[in-house]
Amino acid sequence: MKWPSLSFWFSATVAVAQAASNNGELYVFEKDASIPSRQHHTISHDAARLILASRLGVDRYHDAGVVEDETLFAINDLGGSKKLFEDGQSTSRVTVLLSTSDREHFKDGDRSYTYKSEVQSLPSFDESEELFKAFAKQKQPAKEVRGSEQYPDMGVIHDDGTSIVHIISKSGNPDAMISWWRYKGYDVVLLISPSQTSSTSKYGHYTIPSSSHAKRQMREEPLEEDPVETESPNETITPYKSNDTSPVRGILPFCYSTKEKCESTTRNCTGHGSCTVAYTQKDNAGDAEGVPCYSCSCTPSVRQNNDGTKKTTVWSGPACQKKDVVAPFWLIAGLTVLMVFLVSWGVGTIWSMGEEELPSVIGSGVSGVPRKG
Known about the structure:
The chain is built from ten helices and 14 strands. It has helices spanning about 1-20, 45-55, 70-80, 125-140, 175-185, 210-220, 235, 260-265, 325-355, 360-365, and strands at about 25-30, 40, 45, 95-100, 115-120, 155-160, 165, 185-195, 275-280, 290-300, 300-305, 310-315, 315, 320-325. The strands form four sheets. Strands 1, 2, 3, 4, 5, 6, 7 and 8 form an eight-stranded mixed beta sheet that branches. A two-stranded antiparallel sheet has the order 9-10. It has a two-stranded antiparallel ribbon with strand order 11-12. The termini are far apart.
């Protein structure tokens, strides 16, 4: 009886060790030295993907899916802060690095990071390498993914002066690369992947823009000769379509600086509303009019059934993409509470009637005749 028990514990120990070996690490080095170092809880590999995409400003290409509260907190905390009227591009200089766990990343115990988090069930290094190549493609769709001309031997696959995508080569020194980009004034985000390729995890859904489509648009732009006719092509180059029913991906902002950005990002509020001025924020320049904040104003959809009745659907969300179920929820909750109250009241009434004593008339009628002496 002892050997099966020992075999069970040995298998469990091996399984736990293998699961721990598939975990990765995510480090963030902010150039602002005043931010204290702290450690996050364990995050999923999709949360790490969304954090890197948010840092690079390409989160519009990544599907967040169902996001838990803890994951959303980690994305908001580690994904970099954005200003209110930001057009989606990262304003700070950032470098994302990919390395493996079998290398020395911090010499002499120097871990002057701002944030640290363990990434659970991180996919293999090959999968992470494909993800980083997708980042480079999403930053510049019209260009092929290739090494940087300025840093040809460092493993840099994208460099636009603001965002760096860097896959550290086998001969590279991760500790030197981290120090180099921090010296250049970049925020550094380091993803350490497990060295072994036994992990079967996969990253979530993301899209890669077509380079041929972007190149075709660049060639067609000089054909517009007459500036008067620039208003008519706007109907064909708008990024949204009325029949586009695909879900809006990414975490959408609430405010947009122009109406065109609001319509293009939200796909004209997914056909369930329109972009209007929510409020006007005063800027520091002393402008009397201020900066407008455009957001989606949702309109209920009314559908007429075959029997002549009408059904109204209320929409909500930053792009009017979600059905508002507040009214049905309170209706069902109210009816449920009412039914529980009526049943409880009926049972209580019947119980109280059973507890009452019988009247004296009924009691004398059922009593026996007294016997005579």
